[in-house]
Design a protein that fits this description.
The protein contains one helix and no strands.
């Protein structure tokens, strides 16, 4: 299930869809169409985005107009998972 990046509340949108640009979390009111809820968000990437073709977004927790947005549901940010990065580093130097 996909959830809000801010509070973790589950998004109750139709399966196979993603939130619209103006949609907010029903529990905390946070914007759902934002970088922190996008599959491309990565705090270790340039401009904190794995896409090389999108414009920089300054406020990662606010709604934006990025055409590459793919709802990931928050909390699963690969850039913040240091255990995953440690494993990749160790695999690189086996």
């Amino acid at each position: 299930m996909k959830a809000c990046h801010a509070c973790g509340a589950l998004w109750d949108g139709p399966p196979g869809t993603q939130p619209g640009r103006g949609e907010t979390c029903g529990k905390c009111g946070a914007d759902l169409y934002c970088c922190l809820n996008c599959k491309l968000y990565d705090s270790s990437a340039a401009h904190e985005c794995r896409s090389r073709t999108t414009d920089r977004v300054r406020d990662k927790d606010k709604r934006n107009f990025c055409d590459e947005f793919e709802f990931s549901g928050g909390k699963s940010n690969p850039g913040k998972n240091s255990g995953d990065m440690d494993q990749k580093w160790n695999d690189l130097f086996k």
